[in-house]
Design goal:
The structure holds two protein chains of two kinds. Chain A is of the alpha+beta class. Chain A has two domains: 76 residues, 2-Layer Sandwich (Gyrase A, domain 2); 135 residues, Cyclophilin-like (Cyclophilin, Beta Barrel). Chain A is built from five helices and 13 strands. In chain B, a hairpin with a 3-residue loop joins strand 13 and strand 14. At the A-B interface, strand 2, strand 3, strand 4, strand 6 and strand 7 of A face strand 12, strand 15 and strand 19 of B. Chain A: Keywords: ATP-binding, Hydrolase, Nucleotide-binding, Protein kinase inhibitor.
Chain lengths: 230, 289
């Protein structure tokens, strides 16, 4: 996925200690974030991917903001250059070794309705969900909540499914709910309000204060969902 | 020497344990948290001979009352109010010895909003991502402090209490404060008149002010395209977000890691501490200088 050159990487200052790199597409964010994570300068405080942007945060002891901006732009342009088209084999290998497997009971209360919305049956939706390698695009909403996007492993898969949110969000979604919304899948790390469509449940611990890192899913990480009996 | 405990009798409305927070975890969905008045935290720790990032109490407004079960050195910085030990006035901004069983009271702050109460050794508690801070947005870290809590104090550090009698200080200013800002990433979402209005008017600090953000009141800012949606993007403390109402919110340490409102400006790092001491009703003016 390369950006349209007219909407290519743009730097936007976020005050004196942070700079936002804006990209055209979420796919570009994934590619560029991977390249940035692999070349992250020492002392950088944070690198925060989101839907169209990567925010880099430094401080008085970290690298100068101008240097951070130059690194963001140069890395983005390299990662998005025609012909680069993805990661190097080495990064890919490392990525696959760390795939996280999440076991899911596909017993969610919205499973059948969501499948019907997408013109398939429940088994078809389960096959679609378990048949993809998912990538953590970014975190947000709550500690440990990851926005997962299906990796397009080959061109035959077609465009991502667009799944409407519930028209009325639930006041409580149980911890471990596996859900879909927009082009994302996610797992609720704890009980919270939410408007995503719940298709299943997992016992996986998405957030553990005592673990290092405490979040199971970190940006750039990859996930496979595996069906277990409900 | 053993650390002992501090029994909180009256906690006040929003007292939390804070250190320098957990910066660098936004990619995990974790806010930086930490003391809002970081200078006050550093100073209070230094006054009692602690490393400057030890966990202390951030006491919003007060009153606050606590009784240690051992002799304990304390220092109070940040907000200004009546500080007493068994009814005797003591100074802020200096190390004070509170005898076991004595009653330490911070009266309702008369200037500024957030006291920092440091104890020699610092408060103990489980660390998450290197910090003992309470994150009021996500609930990470210890629960907010309530009356009846018994806070554990770490053993006394080897470092001595510095031999200065009193640190120079001035009470927090109650007047209109000048807050310097740098450009935000979405200033181009606003017309020239709104960019002018941001810096020309005096904004009121509303009561809707906490560790997540501070809502301001004034003549609203207008977006060039009110219908335009911003995909959520990474946020920083000090970001001046403009929601559809046009009344800005300045994000504080417990801010959500991403947000979908355009950021018109960002408060300079050196001026963030003063935000922590602004009281509801107080006024501020932004300056791009």
């Amino acid at each position: 996925m390369t950006a349209d050159t007219s909407t290519g990487p743009v730097l936007r200052a976020m005050g004196e200690e942070a700079v936002l790199l804006e990209l055209a597409l979420l796919e570009d964010v994934l590619l560029v974030h991977r390249a940035l994570a692999a070349s992250r300068p020492a002392g950088l405080v944070d690198l925060v991917p989101a839907a169209r942007t990567v925010l880099a945060v430094t401080d008085a002891r970290g690298p100068a903001l101008a240097a951070v901006g130059a690194w963001l732009l140069a890395t983005a342009e390299r990662a998005l250059a025609p012909g680069v088209g993805g990661s190097t084999g080495a990064v890919d290998e490392a990525g696959r070794r760390s795939d996280t497997v999440i076991q899911v009971r596909y017993d969610g209360q919205d499973l059948a309705e969501t499948a019907a919305l997408l013109g398939m049956d429940a088994d078809g939706l389960i096959a679609w969900h378990t048949g993809r390698l998912w990538t953590v695009a970014f975190s947000g909403f709550a500690p440990g909540f990851a926005y997962l996007v299906p990796e397009r492993e080959d061109e035959t898969i077609g465009p991502p499914l667009e799944i409407p949110r519930l028209s009325v969000p639930r006041t409580t979604v149980p911890s471990g709910s596996v859900a879909l919304a927009g082009t994302f899948s996610g797992v609720y790390p704890r009980a919270s309000p939410g408007g995503w469509r719940i298709i299943g449940t997992t016992d996986a611990v998405l957030w553990d204060d005592a673990a290092d890192p405490p979040g199971l899913l970190v940006p750039g990480g990859r996930v496979r969902f595996v069906q277990v009996p409900a | 020497m053993m650390g002992g405990t501090l029994l909180v009798e009256v906690a006040g409305p929003a007292t939390t344990v804070q250190d320098l927070g957990r910066p660098g975890a936004a990619a995990l969905g974790v806010s930086p948290s930490g003391a809002l008045d970081r200078g006050a935290l550093r100073l209070a720790n230094r006054l009692v001979g602690n490393p400057e990032g030890r966990a202390a109490l951030e006491v919003v407004l007060g009153p606050f009352v606590a009784v240690p079960d051992v002799d304990l050195w304390i220092a109070v910085t940040g907000a200004w109010g009546a500080i007493t030990v068994d009814g005797r006035p003591v100074d802020g901004h200096r190390a004070v010895r509170v005898a076991a069983g004595s009653r330490l009271e911070l009266g309702a702050a008369t200037h500024g909003l957030r006291y920092v109460l440091a104890v020699r050794g610092g408060f103990d508690g489980p660390q998450l991502l290197g910090s003992r801070s309470t994150d009021t947005l996500s609930g990470l870290g210890p629960a907010p402090v309530v009356g009846g809590d018994r806070l554990v104090v770490l053993p006394t550090p080897r470092r001595r209490i510095p031999p200065l009698d009193i640190a120079p200080w001035t009470r927090p200013d109650d007047g209109e404060r000048l807050v310097r800002v740098s450009p935000g990433p979405r200033r181009d979402w606003f017309d020239a008149a709104s960019l002018q209005r941001l810096v020309e008017q005096s904004w009121g600090v509303t009561a809707d002010t906490d560790r997540i953000g501070m809502r301001l009141d004034g003549t609203p800012l207008e977006r060039l395209d009110p219908g335009r949606e911003l995909p959520s993007e990474g946020m920083v403390a000090g970001a001046v977000q403009v929601p559809p109402s046009g009344r800005p919110t300045i994000l504080a340490a417990d801010h959500p890691v991403t947000g979908g409102y355009p950021v018109i400006a960002v408060v300079r790092a050196a001026d963030r501490d003063l935000l922590a001491q602004l009281r509801p009703g107080q006024r501020l003016r932004f300056s791009t200088g």
